[in-house]
Design a protein that fits this description.
About 40% of the residues lie in helices and about 15% in strands. The chain is α+β, with helices and mostly antiparallel strands. Strand 1 and strand 2 form a beta hairpin.
């Protein structure tokens, strides 16, 4: 005489099989065993998003401050975010946004000329440092305004290097919440 499993045991077995299936799918995805249908389109969508954000920021910058000088090698960015109950976060970044990797064409006569703009690369770098959430409030600032309006958040050594002709790569995130 065989024992019939209780309903609880049947549900547990079904859950175990489903979890194992999900695990195998996740493992296959991470090891690129299975074809990921989004694998080919996501990089292009990400590039398009960076371009849109960079274009919007530059349009806003140009309307308020005019064109960025050709002699300006750095991009100064700020994202100022606050939400009820979540506090206030300020993200600052100074970067030269140098091109690398897929910023250059694979071959051809212009293989040493970057395909992407400095603003695109700055937005990409900002996203890598701070994540997607703060991209919604990102703005480019001129050097003078960056060092005056953000002076409270910038350490003294960076203030001394404000006009120095040197390689600068600076980023900081300040978060405070009084609730």
């Amino acid at each position: 005489m065989t024992e019939t499993p209780y309903p609880d045991e049947m549900f547990e077995e079904a859950e175990r099989r489903e979890a194992l299936k999900d695990y195998k799918e996740a493992f296959g995805y991470l090891n690129n065993i299975e074809e990921n249908k989004f694998h080919k389109i996501l990089p292009q969508k990400t590039k398009d998003a960076y371009n849109l954000i960079a274009e919007y920021c530059m349009k806003e910058y140009n309307e308020k401050y005019g064109e960025i000088s050709e002699n300006e090698y750095w991009r100064y960015m700020i994202a100022d975010y606050s939400a009820t109950g979540e506090g206030h976060t300020v993200c600052l970044m100074v970067t030269q946004a140098t091109p690398y990797g897929d910023d250059y064409p694979k071959d051809g006569p212009d293989k040493y000329k970057a395909l992407t703009t400095q603003e695109y690369r700055a937005v990409r770098e900002f996203h890598q440092k701070f994540g997607s959430w703060y991209l919604q409030g990102i703005r480019f600032l001129p050097r003078e305004e960056f060092y005056t309006t953000c002076a409270y958040y910038i350490p003294p050594v960076m203030m001394k290097l404000a006009n120095a002709k040197c390689y600068k790569d600076f980023h900081t995130e300040v978060h405070y919440n009084f609730s």
